[in-house]
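Structure ticket #2291
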Amino acid sequence: MTYKLTYFNFTALGEPIRFLLSYLNIDFEDNRIEVEQWPSIKHTIPYGKLPLLEIDGKVLNQSKAICRYLAKKANLAGSDDWESLLIDIAVENFQDFRLSIISYFYDPNEESKAAKYVTLVNETIPYYMERFENIVVENNGYFVNGKLSWADLFFVGILDYLKFRSNIDLLKDRPNLQALREKVLAIPKIKSWIEKRPLTVDIA
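Resolution: structure written out below.
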């Protein structure tokens, strides 16, 4: 089977997919689009959004659905329906957090953007990150049931981008999340990916 991932030249929503493909030891084409290219090709993309994963030429969109599909192959999607639900909930919480940062960053109005940043720093980031830290404490170092799942890979995969866009060290004074990040990045196949991936603005 052939795999081709198309995404922008940074981590963000593409990185959890890259992590999972690497974890599965799947060779994939890492097709990166520069932001400047996007307006000229957006109309050719299903629903006008990235990432896309092509498997044997079949084009798939929606990053979380792609991650869940790969996670099932990797046995990281939960051992039963309940565990799968808890993983999905964790990922949706990350998504809500991500959207709050993206809403601030891409606000074209400088005045409202500045106001959003104050709220982000003083309220939103502490609100979410404290809860994420506590969940990892309660689950013995992971987000769900004390073992590795795609929720952990998703969180660590998008983390650098969220730190970059918020200009905040999200893991400061959160030792359990720091430890989780180190565990994920130490997984041999993910570590190999990290060592060879392109250096982009959000991880430089």
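Closing remark: The longest strand covers residues 3-8.
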